[in-house]
């Protein structure tokens, strides 16, 4: 009884003060709790619990191939990690992959959105075709590119390269070209996303500001720099945040194309954690790598959200 | 006048290049799926050829048919969609319409769960599922798919629930209807469209998932995205068949994507307004 009194006093400013109102408010809380319970229990079980368990396993040596060496090791995995060259390389690959794919998506997507806004006809074509790459499974996309697009000679990209006089290239076998390829594939698949979001926000910008600017004889560049860009800023930052989070944890489109190779040339941190855990079966160290990835994700999103808040 | 005409021609040229770049790999896969292996491997690549259904016949009805894998994908996707919606609709309604303490925190929690890298979820989950013998089972895979489908569905649905006028509920309460009845009879019918869009996206994400599937699948449960690998091996690639399987794997999501075309931007950016986001 006392708790009821306290809680209803706490929200007294919102809820009606009568007993009837109090009963209603309490019923509403109970109803809300009942509606939320299944979803929140499922989320606790499938996200919060794994996170805690992950941190726990990262303090163990847990080798599925050699179970007799298993045991508690404290923070040893993290010590190993700090002096693990493959970790630092994969972190660098992650940052290059994320930075370049996100930049390319935003620049190409924005340029194309501005261009399509000027089209009097044919916008519908863009709206339909831009959807295609976005709805596909990155695994299927990776498979198609690896074979029909990038295979030596009869792959279309290689065919075009030969005809352009560049000669046949080993697109996925050469470390640099492999990195370029996986970046290009990710950019191919997700630029339509940036394009669609930015086109939608462009279409919602008020027309009269542009009229006024035109009357003031502002050049096209000035209109873009002084009006369009500042008005689009929230949408651009949102696209950057969403795409960064995804690129950091990209998996299928690299796994199916190069599996991180040749060597570790395209092995992003996410893929390293996977390979360590499920190919080399060192679950404990793999967990530490996954925790490191989470920390990197939190730091980067913290920076991005700070940028978003800053005006 | 000529400058303007040049500008229009340049615009059209650039647009065409991009439309082609996005459509081509898909169209090319469809064409290759209708070729024989020797036509696929022809140099220069053949744009004109005699189409054949042979590759489709082989992958669907030949030995090593992928029909069981397509069925696997359907069961996983439908199962995930049903369980997700049963949990997400009530939760989204509560978050959008009801007053209770900790509501802000609850909303934030749903968003924050999306920050977890999937690889960080699958490592511990693999250990747990192995212990209880749920590797290579539908319940195991559907359960872990909730980790990404639930937050997404909840936030997408909240945005639709928030659009309904409050008066509808109040009128129902005044008529003496219970809360549950009001939700079921008055509110749910109002958000039918939003529910349909959410179903499309949850299905799509489940159909396309790969990392969890590749770790948890086995001989019983093996969705088509994983089974695709059977057609590429170190010794040889079965080109036309691989193309056919890719097309079959793309077909449902392309159809759904085009159907849900108008809602796709909302579906892709859900939660972003409030702060998070995923794949």
From TrEMBL, chain B:
The chain crosses the membrane at residues 70-96, 108-128, 140-161, 182-204, 238-260. Residues 70-260 form the ABC transmembrane type-1 domain. Keywords: Cell membrane, Membrane, Transmembrane, Transmembrane helix, Transport. One of its GO terms (cellular component) is plasma membrane. The keyword Transmembrane helix applies. GO terms for biological process: transmembrane transport. It is a multi-pass membrane protein. It is found in: Cell membrane. It comes from the Bacteria. PROSITE patterns: ABC_TM1. PANTHER family: INNER MEMBRANE ABC TRANSPORTER PERMEASE PROTEIN YCJP (PTHR32243:SF18), MALTOSE TRANSPORT SYSTEM PERMEASE-RELATED (PTHR32243). Belongs to the binding-protein-dependent transport system permease family. This is Carbohydrate ABC transporter membrane protein 2 (CUT1 family). It comes from Bradyrhizobium stylosanthis. The lineage of its organism: Bacteria, Pseudomonadati, Pseudomonadota, Alphaproteobacteria, Hyphomicrobiales.
């Amino acid at each position: 009884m006392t708790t009821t009194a306290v809680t209803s006093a706490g929200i007294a400013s919102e809820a009606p003060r009568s007993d009837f109102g109090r009963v209603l408010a309490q019923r509403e809380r109970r109803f809300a709790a009942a509606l939320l319970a299944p979803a929140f229990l499922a989320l606790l079980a499938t996200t919060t619990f794994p996170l805690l368990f992950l941190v726990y396993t990262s303090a163990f040596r847990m080798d599925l191939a050699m179970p007799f060496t298993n045991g508690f090791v404290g923070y040893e995995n993290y010590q190993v990690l700090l002096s693990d060259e493959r970790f630092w390389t994969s972190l660098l690959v992650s940052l290059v992959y994320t930075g370049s794919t996100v930049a390319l998506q935003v620049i190409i997507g924005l340029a194309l959105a501005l261009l399509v806004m000027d089209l009097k006809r044919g916008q519908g074509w863009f709206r339909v075709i831009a959807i295609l790459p976005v709805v596909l499974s990155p695994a299927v996309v990776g498979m198609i590119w690896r074979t029909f697009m990038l295979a030596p000679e009869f792959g279309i990209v290689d065919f075009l390269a030969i005809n352009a006089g560049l000669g046949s290239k080993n697109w996925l076998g050469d470390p640099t070209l492999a990195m370029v390829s996986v970046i290009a594939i990710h950019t191919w698949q997700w630029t339509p996303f940036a394009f669609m979001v930015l086109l939608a926000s462009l279409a919602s910008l008020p027309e009269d500001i542009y009229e006024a600017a035109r009357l003031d004889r502002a050049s096209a560049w000035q209109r873009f720099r002084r009006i369009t860009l500042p008005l689009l800023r929230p949408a651009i930052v949102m696209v950057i945040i969403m795409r960064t989070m995804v690129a950091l944890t990209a998996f299928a489109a690299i796994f199916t194309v190069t599996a991180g190779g040749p060597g570790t040339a395209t092995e992003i941190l996410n893929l390293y954690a996977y390979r360590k855990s499920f190919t080399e079966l060192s679950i404990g160290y793999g967990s530490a790598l996954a925790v490191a990835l989470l920390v990197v994700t939190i730091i980067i999103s913290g920076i991005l959200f700070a940028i978003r808040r800053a005006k | 006048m000529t400058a303007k005409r040049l500008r229009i021609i340049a615009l059209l040229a650039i647009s065409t290049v991009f439309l082609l770049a996005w459509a081509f790999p898909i169209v090319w896969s469809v064409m290759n799926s209708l070729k024989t292996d020797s036509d696929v491997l022809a140099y220069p690549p053949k744009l004109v050829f005699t189409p054949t259904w042979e590759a489709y016949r082989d992958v669907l009805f030949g030995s090593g048919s992928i029909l069981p894998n397509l069925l696997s994908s359907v069961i996983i996707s439908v199962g995930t969609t049903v369980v997700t919606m049963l949990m997400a609709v009530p939760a989204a309604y509560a978050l959008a319409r009801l007053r209770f303490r900790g509501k802000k925190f609850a909303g934030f929690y749903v968003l924050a769960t999306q920050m977890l890298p999937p690889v960080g979820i699958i490592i511990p989950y693999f250990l747990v599922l192995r212990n209880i013998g749920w590797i290579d089972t539908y319940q195991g895979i559907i359960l872990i798919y909730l980790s990404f489908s639930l937050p997404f569905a909840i936030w997408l649905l909240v945005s639709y629930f928030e659009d309904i006028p409050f008066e509808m509920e109040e009128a129902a309460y005044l008529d003496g209807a219970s809360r549950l009845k009001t939700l079921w009879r008055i509110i749910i019918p109002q958000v039918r469209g939003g529910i349909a869009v959410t179903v499309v996206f949850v299905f799509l994400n489940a159909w396309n998932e790969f990392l969890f599937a590749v770790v948890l699948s086995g001989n019983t449960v093996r969705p088509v995205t994983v089974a695709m690998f059977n057609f590429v091996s170190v010794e040889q690639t079965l080109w036309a068949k691989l193309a056919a399987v890719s097309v079959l794997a793309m077909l449902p999501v392309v159809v759904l994507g085009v159907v849900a075309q108008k809602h796709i931007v909302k579906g892709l950016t859900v939660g972003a307004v409030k702060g998070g986001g995923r794949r």
